[in-house]
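note to self — DONT lose this again. spent like an hour looking for the file last time. sequence + predicted structure for the chain T wanted, 776 res
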Amino acid sequence: MYMKKKLMKAAGVCSYVFTGLWMIAAGCCYALSNKLYWLFAIFALITLVNGFVITDIRSKIKSVKLEKKEQSRYLLCLVLSILCPPAFVLNCIACFRTQDDELVVIRQNAAVKDKKEKQEKPLLRSARFITLCVALLTVFVSSFAAHIFETSHFTVRVSDFTLTQEMTQQYNGGEINGKKFIMPNDTTYAVTMYVPETASEENPVPVVFVLPGFTRTKATMAQYCIELSRRGAVVFCSDPGGQGSTTETSTTGANGIEYLVQYVYNNTDDFKFCDKTRFGAVGHSAGGGNVCTLAADMAGYSFKESVIKAVYISGYIKVSSANKYTDLRCNAALSYAYYDEGAFRYQTDSSAFEVVTRRFINEVNGKDNGYDTVAFDYGYGDMSEGTYRIIHREEINHCFEMYDPISIANTVDFFNETLNMQSGIPGNSQIWFGKEFFNGLALAAAFTFMIAFCAVLMKLPFFAEMKESQKAVSAVPVLKEHQTISHKVIFWFCIILTAVIACLDYIPLANLSIQIFPTGNSASVFTFVFPARMINAILLWAVINGTIGLIIFFGTTLIEYAYEKAASKARGEAMEPFDWGKFKAIKICRGENSSALVNTLKAVLLALMMFAAFYLLVQICFRLFHQDFRFMLISASPLNARMFVTAWEYIPLIFIFYISNSIRVNCSIGREGWSEWKTLLVGALANSIGLAFILLINYVCYFSQGSPFYGYWGNGTEVWLYVNMVFALVVMMFLLPIFNRLFYKLTGNVWTGAMACCMIFIMMTISASVSYIPMY
C-alpha cells in the first residue's frame, strides 16, 4: 500500500506540472492569435481536476485493493491521464499493484525519550536578534563593497550636487554659441559627479555627460559612469525632469542636460580639471534623443565650435531625432537593440530602422554621403573632422540594453577613441557588475533585517500582547479529511481565475489609466492629483484585482457552504457544522489589558516602524557610502519630498490589493494543511503567474512575429512601455505573499505585513518612476 500511495502521489504531482505546461502552451497560442489556446486551456483544467481526484483517492486508501466506488473514479483518472503521459504510466503501475509492500518502509517505532522542553533564550541571544545583527552587518558591508566598485577602488571621487536656476545664470549669462541655456523655472536638477584622481588643473581630462531614459534615474546609468570614470573621464549624470531627485517636471533644455552642460562649460571656477575641448554625451532611450538634441543645439557651425565633440545615441531612432542628424558637428554613434520592443512603431518609409540608419551615416555636416547600405560596427568618416559615424546592433532588448556588457563596451570604446582618452583599458574589461551584485545583496539583507526587526519587536511586552490576543482567531489548517473534491476544485479554480484576470486586465487598465488621468499623463501639465503617469496603471490594476480577490474569497466560501449543504441534503445526511474559521483571522481582537482599537493602533505603529527602519537604512547607507539598495530595475532609493508626497497618494488605494493578498495567503492558502514551504511557493506563484504570462504572451509574439503582442491598444495608444514595468513588478508580486505570510506568523494578524509591504513596495516603485507633481 505504501508504494501504491507513493506512485499515486507522483502521478498527482506530474498532473500539476502538466497543468502548468498546458497553460504555457495556451498562453503561447493566445500570443500568436491561434484559437487553439481554448483547447490547451481545457487540457490544463482537465489535468488539474485529474490531479485533484488522484490526490483525493490516495488520501482515502486503506488497503492495497480499492473500494468499488474508488475503482471507477480511478479508472476515469487513468483515462484522463492520457493528457499527462508520466502520470498515465505511474497510474498504470499503481493500478496493477496488488502486493502489500508495507514492510518495505517499516519505520522505527521505538520509544523516544521525552526531551526536556528547551528553555527560551534571552532576547539578545535569540535567533531573531542574531539574524537582525547579521542582516544589518551585511547591509553595511555590501554597501561598502559596492562603494569600492563605484569609486574604482577609491581612485574616483563620487559626489552629488544640485543644479539651480541661479547657477545657470551665473557664468557668461548662460550663453553658448549665441544661444542661452538658462533654466526657466526656480527648480532643481539632481546631479552626480565622478572625478578620477588623475584629473587636475594641470592635467584636464575629457568629460562625458550621461542621461537616463524615461522612468529611469541616474542610478540606473551608474555602470556607464563607473566604466568611463575608471578610464580617466570626468562624468556627470543627472536625473531628467520629473524623475529621481529632480524637482523640475518638464522636459525643457533636453530634459535638463543642456543646462548642466552650459553650467560646466562656462564655469571658470569649479571645473578647471575638465578639458572643455573634449566634451561627450551619452543617453539611453529618451535620454538618447535628448543628447542628440543637446549636440545639435550646441553644434555651432563647425566641429571646432561644437561644444559636444562626441555623442552616443542609444535606443532612440524617432524621426524627430533623425531630423537633427544633419545639424550635428561632432562624431556620433547610434545604437539600437536588435530585440528592441519599440521597433514596431517604426515601419514606414520614413521611420524604419533601415531608413534612419542610412540617414545617420549620410546626413553629415549638411551633406549627403550617398551610402546605399549600412554596415554595423563599421566606422564611417573622419574622426579628426567630426564626421565619424558608427552604428551598433546589440542582441538585447530595449529594457536591458543599458545593462548589456557589449553595449557598455561599445559606448566606452567610442568615447575612448573620439575623446582621445588613452585609457589603455579595453571596453570588455568591466567592473560595474560588482556594484550591482553588492547593491542587490544589500537589498536582500535589508528585507531580511526588516523581518528580523519585526520579530525582535514582537518579543517586547508592548507588541507581544497584541499577538497573544490573536491566538483565539488564528487561521487553523483544515483537517485533510474535511477537504472534499469540491473544496479543492473551488480552491484551485479561484487561483487560476484570479491569475487569468490579472493577466488579461493589466494592459486594458493601463490604457484606461491614460483616459481617466489625462492630466497626470502629460509632462507639460503639473498636477497634485495622481501625478505618477506609469504608476496610474498599477493603481487601477491593484484596486480592481484586489477587489476581485476579496469578492472571490468571501463569495466562494458562501458558494462552498451552499454546495456542501445541498450535497448533504441529497445524500440524506445531516451536514456537519461548516468551518467559517477562514474569516476569523481577519479580525484584530481585544486583549486582556487592551481594546481592539489599541491593538489596531499597535499594528499600524509596528508597520510604520518597519517602514521607517527600512528607509532609515537606505538613508544611512547613501550618506556613508553613496549607495542605495537595488538590483537592475528593482530599487529602494533615498527618499525625497516629491516622491514621498506622491507615494502617499497611491498607498491607501493600492493597499486594497495588499490586504487582499494577505487575507488570501493566510486565511485561504495557509489553511490547506500544507507544509510551510509549499504554502509560500503556491502563494508566490498564484500572485505572480498572471503577470509572468503577460511577459510570456508579449515575447512569444515578439520573437515569432517581430512585433510585441502589447504594442498598441484600444484607440492606438502605445502601451509597450507598461509591459517593461512588469519585469520589476512580477518579482515584487512573487515576494509579497512570502512577506505577508512571514509577518502573519510573527504578528498573528493579516494587517501589519500588508501595511508595511504596501508602504515599502509602493515607495520603491514611485521612486524608480516619474511624477509630474509641482514641488516648488
